[in-house]
């Protein structure tokens, strides 16, 4: 597909020092229980399933309000629409395995294509639902969006309703580390126009890069067998699926498999599993690399994860499903 004509939101251009200070204040980790929505390409590989299971075992911190199916295209789908439809179906499958069918009425179909440009949203029930839900929130009490896919749904909502930046807080796993040596990125690379909209919108944002950072949060077959095999129906499902996916994508007898999306849920926990720092929001270019503009508002950039502590917390929680 030919790259859309570049266009950048101007909402990320601060007018005063107070704008910078406000962006820092709004990036503080939340205290107390929060409302969240999950934006997920659930059928893409295996880490989204881990993330949803972990989220639903963290109800003391996070109240799940909705789950949105996001588009994706890889060896598991024939196009973006097919990826979204399969993700929609997989969300219900996982909720059934977890015995959390009460959430099934809060699952919504998302965009059936990626953005064609940076001004035209892709309409979907997920986009409309996010805009409607956000009316009940504010900059002091935002709705938290855990985004673990191409950010097409979120970008479309921001295009339709730019004032959402005052009501949302987004934790997005996408792009590559700032020091990563090439430009291969799945979530951002699927829809660069959407990434540019999100990064330029001025919404409070935690960026968790895949390549060079989140990919370090990986597990292995023996570890899965020790912690999860035989514990419950979901655990057996996800162990088998992870082993099968490792065979497709790796093929080696000795393998590890990233389950990176869990990190987007974990950042919102009261425990500190990651290290992050303030950075000016980068500009995602159409070659998938970043350009820097130090005038832009701040985001939080995650650069390290305590892999062992988070993995232990994940395994303990998801093994406790009955």
Structure description:
The protein is of the alpha/beta class. It has one domain (31-318): Inosine-uridine Nucleoside N-ribohydrolase, Chain A. It contains 11 helices and 12 strands. The chain has helices at 17-25, 47-56, 80-97, 125-134, 152-160, 187-190, 192-200, 221-227, 233-249, 262-266, 307-318, and strands at 34-40, 62-69, 107-108, 143-148, 168-173, 205-208, 218-219, 257-258, 274-280, 283-284, 290-291, 298-305. The radius of gyration is 18 Å and the shape is globular. The N and C termini lie far apart (46 Å).
The total domain count is 1
Number of strands: 12
Global mean pLDDT: 93
Detail the poorly predicted runs: none
CATH superfamily: Ribonucleoside hydrolase-like
Structural class: alpha/beta
Shape: globular
Distance between the termini: 46 Å
- What's the CATH topology label? Inosine-uridine Nucleoside N-ribohydrolase, Chain A
Instruction: Give the SSE string.
Output: HEHEHEHEHEHHEEHHEHEEEEH
Instruction: Report the CATH C-level class.
Output: Alpha Beta
Quick rundown:
This protein is of the alpha/beta class and 322 residues long.
């Amino acid at each position: 597909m030919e790259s859309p004509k570049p266009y950048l939101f101007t909402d990320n251009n601060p007018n005063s020092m107070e704008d910078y200070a406000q962006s820092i204040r709004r990036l503080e980790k939340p205290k107390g229980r929060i409302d969240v929505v999950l934006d997920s390409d659930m059928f893409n590989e295996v880490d989204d399933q881990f993330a949803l299971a972990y989220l639903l075992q963290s109800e003391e911190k996070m109240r799940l309000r909705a789950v949105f199916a996001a588009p994706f295209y890889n060896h598991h789908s024939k196009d973006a629409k097919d990826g979204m439809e399969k993700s929609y179906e997989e969300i219900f499958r996982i909720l059934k395995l977890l015995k959390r069918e009460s959430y099934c009425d809060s699952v919504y179909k998302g965009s059936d294509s990626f953005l064609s440009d940076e001004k035209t949203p892709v309409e979907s029930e997920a986009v409309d639902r996010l805009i409607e839900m956000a009316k009940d929130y504010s900059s002091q009490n935002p709705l938290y969006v855990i985004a673990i896919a191409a950010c097409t749904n979120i970008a479309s909502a921001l295009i339709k309703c730019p004032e959402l930046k005052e009501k949302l807080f987004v934790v997005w796993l996408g792009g590559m580390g700032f020091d990563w040596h090439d430009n291969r990125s799945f979530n951002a690379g699927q829809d660069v126009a959407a990434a540019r909209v999100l990064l330029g919108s001025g919404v409070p944002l935690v960026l968790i890069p895949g390549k060079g950072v989140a990919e370090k949060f990986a597990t292995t077959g023996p570890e899965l067998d020790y912690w999860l095999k035989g514990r419950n129906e979901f655990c057996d499902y996800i162990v088998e699926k992870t082993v099968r996916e490792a065979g497709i994508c790796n093929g080696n007898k000795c393998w590890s498999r990233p389950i990176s999306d869990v990190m987007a849920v974990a950042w919102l926990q009261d425990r500190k599993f990651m290290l992050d720092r303030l950075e000016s929001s980068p500009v995602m270019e159409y070659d998938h690399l970043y350009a820097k503009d130090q005038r832009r508002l701040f985001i939080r950039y995650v650069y390290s994860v305590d892999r062992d502590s988070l993995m232990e917390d994940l395994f303990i929680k998801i093994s406790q499903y009955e």
